[in-house]
Amino acid sequence: MAAAAGVSRGTVSRLLNGDKYVSPAARVAIERAISETGYVVNRAARSLVTQRTGSVVMVLSEPHEKLFEDPNYSTLIRVAIRMLAERDLSLVMMMAGDEGDRERVVRYVRGGHADGVLLVSTHAGDPLVEALGSGGPPAVSVGAVIGHENVIPYAAADERLGARQMTEYFVRQGRRRIAMITGPMDTPGGIQRLEGFAEVLGRKATQRLIAHGDWTQASGERAMRELLERSPDLDAVFVASDLMAAGALAALRAAGRRVPDDVAVGGFDDSAVAVSTHPPLTTIRQPLAKMAQETMRLLFALLDGAGPVEPVVLPTELVVRESA
């Protein structure tokens, strides 16, 4: 390569490793030689010198099937791949939904196979977080990691704000028996969306009007049936995700309830699911692509040695459609 370009091997090495201090003439010569010879960088050899693997691992702490059911994950993956490609880095996807999966992730990361870790949907008390421990590659999270908010940088939507926006909208509509289907109560979305709901309703947010789901459509349908049995006079339900809201709509149809005439339904996410339900879903838009971008920006800052970084919390927006 160096001979073909007419420069030293050191100059070629500096350019391939991203060094800015390469003259324009040498840069042009090397790029022409690369094109003519079809040269491809040997990543294994480079990693021996740079101590970098050229990859980042995304860890999804959910069962495998959720990766394909929830459209939010495809948005996160798409943004991560695009931004990593701009730095000539690759994304490795790993699941950590059970003990065996978590052990594989820990072995992989501790084995030095990743430059950074991107955590997604991490639950409170997840042993994976402690197992990765200090001294490993930098880690960031989409959404806060409960109990590690000051340790693991994150980008998130303002969960409480979104819940308040939806609940206040129901109140303005004159809805009097407002229920909620939460997400898992060991996740920030589960906890903080319930907190926002309760902040608006106060003592009216009784346990009788609250049911819990696990972000899946089936859990939304099951929780809606529970609410109808407990409180058949409810006239609105805030569901903590669009996917669960699709399940709630199915349960309401099966029970002969008209939406929104009898029961108004609101979701959270503004994912592709929200426009595919019948009727289309009034929901809270969380800027998921922006959250992914900000999370990657935090990771890049850590990889570049920029020092401590601050969490990023982004505002949400009420999107009104036909379900409420």
UniProtKB/TrEMBL annotation:
Metal-binding in keyword set: no
An example Gene Ontology molecular-function term: DNA binding
Keyword DNA-binding appears in the UniProt entry: yes
Alphabetic keyword roster: DNA-binding, Transcription, Transcription regulation
Alphabetized PROSITE patterns for the sequence: HTH_LACI_2
Coiled-coil segments on the chain, per record: none
InterPro entries: HTH_LacI (IPR000843), LacI/GalR-like_sensor (IPR046335), Lambda_DNA-bd_dom_sf (IPR010982), Peripla_BP_I (IPR028082)
Domain HTH lacI-type: 1-50
Protein name, as recorded: LacI family DNA-binding transcriptional regulator
UniProt source species: Nonomuraea bangladeshensis
